[in-house]
Design goal:
The complex is a heterodimer. By secondary structure, chain A is an all-alpha fold. Helices cover 74% and strands 1% of the residues of chain A. Chain B is an all-alpha fold. Classes of the chains: A mainly alpha, B mainly alpha.
Chain lengths: 219, 174
């Protein structure tokens, strides 16, 4: 095909399509009914699973925290914060599912895709927030008696581990951003198939932002 | 009664704009089954959105927006999309048997292939350009400025030209 003739070829393709393309009217409405039923199936299964497990976990932890009479202060504080962090993440995921369902696909393409990109970015935000709980898993089992009876080696080791996890959690919270997507550690965390549409969506959203700011994105 | 007229309206809209559905789906899908799946998703969204349709917008503009938005989102999800269930026998758009111009088919298939290799936004822009939509209308559908559209089209055409030239060299073994 000659590049200068692509409009010509497309026109002839279009004319032929007008002649041969047939709409199966009977199936049109059947398809809309089937799609309505399959909508839930089309939601991200991993996300739905994560929300379900998260809700069950939070209910169990909160119920336990309310029911327990005597518990170490380390346990109470660690699990209360952990429960709060999980609730925030669940809230973000549920908010996303609602927004995706209500998304206005009739809006101009750039606007819709930009909104989807922002939604996708909030998935990264939820992940960042979830990592903040890392240090809590090094402290929830402690109690005053353990610390009083422990030797200095245990205290040094415990402090070092908790500090390391705190630094790691903070570092991940600061650095899990789309801008770092080409870094090796980022690819290690976010290489699953669930992440591909999210990262692509953010990429398109950024491209649109650049376009709207008058900057042509380069490959 | 109101429900019935919505159904009639829905079918009439699809009938009048079936070409858009087919062309957008072909731009995002090589495989026939995938194309049918995408068409199903698009018409489902058209059905859901029909009550909100604003008559100040042309139907073609409205359908292009829905189709391209669904097409782009659908394409991103292709790595984890569940196979459609129960819709395999519910084909919506059919190509009736007829005389085919084989030479043009090869050329069009090649053009479709090159379009599918473009980035999502570029794919939408070139499709609307090939449909001979004025830049203003393309800008309205996509929500970008006419300047951006014009610059992008120029770049895409250069990219397509390179692809065709490369293909020609391969064909002639140079």
């Amino acid at each position: 095909m000659e590049p200068d003739k692509i409009l010509e070829y497309w026109k002839s393709y279009e004319n032929r399509l007008d002649e041969v393309l047939v709409l199966h009217r009977g199936n049109s409405l059947d398809i809309t009914r089937m799609k309505m039923r399959s909508m839930l199936r089309s939601m991200s299964p991993v996300k739905v699973f994560a929300i379900t497990v998260g809700i069950v976990w939070v209910i169990v932890v909160d119920a336990f925290l309310l029911a327990v009479d005597q518990a170490s202060i380390f346990f109470l504080v660690s699990m209360t914060i952990q429960s709060l962090i999980t609730k925030i993440a669940i809230g973000i995921y549920v908010y996303q599912l609602v927004l995706v369902y209500k998304l206005d696909v009739e809006s101009p393409v750039a606007q819709t895709q930009h909104r989807l990109g922002k939604l996708a970015n909030s998935t990264l935000l939820a992940t960042r927030i979830l990592f903040l709980q890392l240090p809590l898993w090094t402290t929830f089992f402690l109690n005053s008696q353990m610390i009083e009876n422990a030797g200095s080696l245990f205290i040094i080791l415990q402090s070092a581990i908790t500090l390391s996890f705190t630094i790691a959690a903070w570092w991940l919270f600061k650095n899990i951003r789309w801008e770092n997507r080409n870094k090796r550690w980022f690819k290690l965390f976010f290489s699953g198939i669930e992440w591909i549409p999210i990262l692509r969506s953010i990429e398109l959203s950024r491209e649109i932002e650049l376009l709207n700011n008058g900057i042509e994105a380069t490959n | 009664m109101q429900e019935e007229s919505k159904e009639n309206r829905f079918i009439n809209v699809l009938e009048s704009h079936k070409g858009i559905l087919y062309k957008v789906a072909s731009s995002f899908c090589r495989d026939e089954t995938d194309r049918d799946d995408l068409v199903h998703e698009i018409i489902f969204e058209i059905w859901r959105s029909l009550d909100r349709y604003d008559a100040r917008t042309k139907y073609s503009t409205w359908i292009y927006r829905i189709s391209l938005n669904i097409g782009m989102s659908w394409k991103r999800r292709e790595s984890r999309r569940p196979k459609s269930i129960n819709s395999a026998d519910k084909v919506l758009l059919l190509i009736s048997d007829g005389e085919q111009n084989h030479e043009n088919d090869t050329a069009i298939n090649q053009l479709h292939e090159f379009i599918r290799e473009l980035r999502e936004l570029d794919r939408a822009i070139i499709l609307l350009y090939l449909e001979e939509k004025p830049y203003r209308e393309i800008a309205t559908i996509l929500g970008l400025s006419e300047t951006n559209i014009s610059t992008r089209i120029s770049r895409i055409k250069t990219e397509l030209k390179k692809k065709f030239q490369h293909e020609k060299k391969k064909e002639y073994g140079t």
